[in-house]
Structures
1.
Amino acid sequence: MGIGQKKSKGTSKGSKTKNKQYKRALDTKRRPMDIDQVQDILEKVAETGKPLKFAYDDDLPGGGQFYCAPCARHFTDQGTLDTHTKSKLHKRRLKDVAQKKYTQKEADAGAGKSKEVYAPAHPELVAARAMEAETIAPAAAAADEDDL
Ligand SMILES: [Zn+2]
């Protein structure tokens, strides 16, 4: 029976690629929010001081009233949310979220890209241009008002 089982598993290339596509579709469908997105939201919550609140939504589990912010998941009731907060998955996620935020700057540095910021060769010229721009802008705005 060994040969028969091998055949049913589908070791040929064709069936494997098909299977992969199906799995990829499921992966993207169930993909949770990325860590940096969660960190952005948590930062905003900390800034405003308001806890995350969702309006009642029938499409979400539990009407969207039982939400775990670090995991970005909705739960059906308070009991499941409580058991979830005690779970290993949630604790692991908390650790991930508490890590330092990964930025584009860091990614560029890792890839060997760096952006050098030079001091202006003629600082007095730069300052003069900035002054010019400031004086021109209000004058132009005044001219627009005259036209109206
Ligand atoms: Zn959680």
2.
Amino acid sequence: MDVLTAILTRRSERSLVEPAPSAGEFAELLAVAATAPDHGQLRPWRWILVRDADRDALGACFAAGAEAGRAAEAAAKAHRAPLLATLVFQPRAGHRVPEWEQLAATSLMNHAMMLLLHSRGYGSIWRTGAFADSVPVRDLLGLHPQERTLGWLYIGSPLHERALPPRTPQDLTGKVTSLARRPEPSMAGGHLGSPSVQR
Ligand SMILES: Cc1cc2nc3c(=O)[nH]c(=O)nc-3n(C[C@H](O)[C@H](O)[C@H](O)COP(=O)(O)O)c2cc1C
């Protein structure tokens, strides 16, 4: 599958069933995804794979933070895919590469992973949710104090073959400018609501 096709046909999949990639296949894809741009090659992340009965323990953590009467619903969220790959961010404090760049590198790696999974016929969706970095979740995963979860890549095989909803073409004209062609003040401010010209 070429890159253009992979990007245009990927969809976040909400109904995921077995099979999911094995640990070996996950590692194989990750070796490729980890070639995404990463300033300083810090690899400021790690993955914790949660599958099978381990999802019960994670679901219990979700339930622990749920509103009264919604524990079962929260627990069931951990069973929405056969594999929940926990994305853990490990920022290097005080490094010359600022934290936002480390987070950007982590997100790029994750997106590459989603495209690679898609190219192999797997589906995925990045979910965070209210309990992603809650104390019970952190304890279960054994996170170090400087680490934090960025949620989970829910991974499996799409339950249904579905017709791809079209990606609606958007007018992105105002998103690209040049020094020679400055934006209209109304476009430059955009959602920021600033009347001043932005460069
Ligand atoms: C960092 C991040 C966190 C997200 N968290 C959730 C979430 O907790 N629950 C959810 O339903 N969608 C979440 N989303 C949105 C989906 O992953 C997905 O991008 C969205 O449904 C659009 O689908 P598409 O990827 O097919 O365009 C999140 C997206 C990102 C980038």
